[in-house]
Write a structure and sequence with these properties.
By secondary structure, this protein is of the alpha/beta class. It contains four helices and four strands. The chain is globular, with a radius of gyration of 14 Å.
Length: about 100
């Protein structure tokens, strides 16, 4: 688990506080939602509390080529909008 966290830190993984914020329409047409960034220690605290959802948005071909991490749920980016119901709204989301 620690290896996963170190790797996530080096990959500069965006952390979105809730799926609800990511799915909410922007306040204005030019506004884009911003992903909150957290320190590795803060991420580790959330992981220990079970308050994190690991989301892998890569396509199946990429998973075959590069593999995935244990515990990540794969929803390819092209399918994400249709499958948002599978993403919990009460957890922080870490993407790969």
């Amino acid at each position: 688990m620690r290896r996963l966290l170190v790797l996530a830190t080096f990959l500069v993984i965006p952390l979105v506080t809730t799926a609800r914020q990511a799915a909410a329409p922007p306040a204005t047409s030019s506004a884009q939602p911003k992903a909150q960034r957290m320190a590795a220690d803060d991420v580790m605290t959330l992981v220990e509390k079970g308050q994190v959802f690991f989301l892998d948005v890569r396509e199946p071909k990429e998973l075959e080529e590069f593999g995935t991490f244990e515990g990540y749920v794969n929803i390819p980016l092209g399918q994400l909008e249709k499958r948002l119901a599978e993403v919990p709204k009460d957890k922080a989301i870490i993407t790969a």
